[in-house]
Amino acid sequence: MKTMRKVLTYFVIAAVAFLSAVNYEIFIFPNEFAPSGINGICTMIQYVTGISVGYLSLLINIPLALWCYFEVSKPVALRSMVYVGVFSLALVILDKVDLSAFAYATENGTSKILGPLVGGIIQGFVFSILAKSSAYSGGTDFVSAIVHKRNPMRSVYGISFIMNTCIAICSYFVYDYKMEPVILCIIYGYLSSSVVDRLMKSGREAICFEIITEHPQEISEEIIRKTRHTTTLIPAKGMYSGKEKSMLICVVNKTQAAAVARICRSYPNTFAVMDPVGEVMGNFKDLKMDGSQVLHVLDSGDGKTL
C-alpha cells in the first residue's frame, strides 16, 4: 500500500508539473508578464533572448536541488526534481506545439487581466498539491528551505516577498517600460498565494464546540458514538442562575459540525458556542461524517516541506 501511494504521488507530481507548463503556455506567456519566483526571472530572460524557460529552469534548479538534497531532505529534493524535470521538458515540447487556438490573449489588450487571474488560480492549485506531496516547485522554495534549515528563526516569507518584489519591478523595464506587466505580476502572485493558502487550510480546519449543559454524560456518549471524537468535561457555574453546570469542549471535522449541532438541540437546557479552528495539531484524525477515517491518497514523505 505504501509503495502504491508513493508511485501515485510521483505520478500526481508529474501531472501537476505538466499542468503548470500548460498554464504557462496558455495564460502567462501570451499575456507578456513575469510570474513570481525563479520562473519569473526565466520568463523575462525568455522574453528578451528567446531561450526557453524550460532550459533556464532546469539549469537554475539542478544545483539548488543538489544543495537541498544534501542539506535539507533527500526525499523532498528528489520529488521536487521530478516536478522541475517534467515541467521543463513539457515546456520545451509545448514550445514546438501550436497552442494559439487555446492561448488566452486579446489583440487590443482588453480583458488582459483574465489571463493572470486564471493562471494564478491554477498555479495555486499546483502549489497546494506539491505541499501535500512533500515537494517544492523549485527556485525560491529551495532557497527558503536551506535558509530555514540554517536559521529556523528567519522568516522565509520575507525572502520570497523581497525576491518577488524585485521581479515585479524588473518587469517594468523588461516589458517596454509599462506598468501593466507589474500589475499582472502582483495579481498573479497574490492569487496563487491565496489559493494555496485556502486549499491547504481546508485540509486542517476543524470546528470547536463549547457546550454548556446539564447532560454531559449523555451528550458525550452520543458525540463519541456518532463522530468518533471525544469531549473534555470542565465544571462550570451559571452566574445568573447560580446553578452548577458542565461545559464540554469538543473539536470535530467541519463535515461533522451539523451532527454535533443536532445533538445539542435535542437536550433541554443546553446551548453551544461554535468557533472555527484554523489548524489542529497533535492526535486529531480526519474523519468523515459517519466517523470513518479519511484516507489520504498522496504520500507526504518525510514532511520536511515548509
Can you walk through the features of this model?
The protein is of the alpha+beta class and 306 residues long. Helix content is 56%, strand content 10%. The chain is built from ten helices and four strands. The chain has helices spanning 2-28, 38-49, 53-71, 74-94, 114-132, 140-150, 156-174, 180-202, 216-227, 257-265, and strands spanning 206-213, 232-237, 244-253, 271-277. A hairpin with a 6-residue loop joins strand 2 (232-237) and strand 3 (244-253).
Outline of the structure:
The chain is 56% helix and 10% strand. By secondary structure, it is of the alpha+beta class.
**Separation of termini?**
26 Å
C-alpha Rg (nearest Å): 24 Å
Which strand order do you get reading across the main beta sheet? 2-3-1-4
Beta-strand share of residues: 5-15%
Low-confidence stretches: none
Q: What spatial form do the alpha-carbon principal axes imply?
A: elongated
Helicity level, as a percent range?
55-70%
Number of strands: 4
Largest sheet: 4 strands, antiparallel
Category from helices, strands and their pairing: alpha+beta
Instruction: Return the string of H and E elements.
Output: HHHHHHHHEHEEHE
Q: What's the rounded overall pLDDT mean?
A: 84
Figure out the total of helices: 10
